[in-house]
Amino acid sequence: MMGSIASYEQAAAAVEDEGPESPVSSPPMSLDDPGTPGPHGLEVNFVGTLTRLGPGHSSEGLLDANYGIGDRLQLKYERPYVTEHASGTEFQRGIGATEIGVKWRFVDRHELEIAFYPQYQFDDGFTLKDEEGIPEASEGRSVYLPLLISENMARVYTLAANYGYRRNLDGRGNDNNIGLGIGRAMGWQGRVMAEVFSERDESFHNRQTDARVGVFFLPFPKSFEHSSFETPVFASLGHSIGKTESGEKSTTFCFGLSWIRKPRA
Questions:
Q1: pTM of the model
Q2: Domains contained in the chain, CATH given
């Protein structure tokens, strides 16, 4: 019994040593963080996104599942359900393209973390139609290669940066994604976040740049204190800044919850 108490006290001291969490993470942000679920940890995110682009609107319901292998590896699977109602077209809906990925955090020392997160997107989503009912070209297959960097500052702040290059394997345009963000812990079970995230073409000409703020917190934390799982909730609000490729202003609201199975000790 004394050994169990000592182990619990050591674990509590370790958590106290680490401090509260403040990463800028996806979801609900566009920036991703180098963190992984831990050994045999499982994180399933149920995400809803509403987008207003000029007179049109769209939505996405996303299933995002992540599994931890060891302390530094993560496997990802995600599949969205998409609806779209652009100006001059009928309401359209269907299952979007599948994406899989592997995250590897290769730097984890002091307060600095860096991860490489290669991902592959299949060309298996439903096909949108234009105003005349003619099927449009799909996004095609692509490989996305992001580098994720975060550094903890003063225990309660995290500075984050992402750079990602998406290579389209069907010759339908390549992209560069650049993001900067900051997170601040609010107590031990919540955080607020802010970011600027820019999507650019292969020549780094702006496609769309968004400013976004978000929150992430665990309701009723006492209920999950001795549980092997927890269900935090999150939300964010984003708006385009400057010109967009479509010429229309964009507003995005993201919300959802996570089901997390804690990693094995």
A1: 0.89
A2: 2-261 (2.40.160.40)
